[in-house]
Design goal:
globular
Length: about 160
Amino acid sequence: MNFRIYCEGDEFPKENVAALEKAMDGFVETDVTLAIEFLFVNGTEIRRLNRETRGIDKVTDVLSYPTLDGIKGEAIYGEDHPYEMDEEDNLLIGSVVVCCDRAKEQAEEFGHSYNRELHYLLVHGIMHCLGYDHMTDEEKAEMREQEEKILGKLGITRD
């Protein structure tokens, strides 16, 4: 497998971590294991992070902090990013912070499970760390297609 998720706590169980790692395997051409960190916080903490890192003083559902630039759709080689390698020789592509409070609210608003919302937000964050964005309609469509591809591998639908 070429994708490693660092995740502590009970919010996203180990079997979910393993399934998402498997679903992401092969998504990017790479000669190293790509690693990402998941953090789960409350509304107060994500608001603080949003304010301090983006200058937006409000609660949001997910924040992504990519470590690499210009990698969307590109092959990623470890030798090109020696300073982003972690102690296990994985290439750290970023961190994803999810507000559990907001995810629960959105699951209720959208009429689907918290599990589905959490998976969507995490995959959305991964896509940002891999260079995808949704600033234009074209970018949004491309990002959604990739998200749905990964969620489909996990058997997670919009139901």
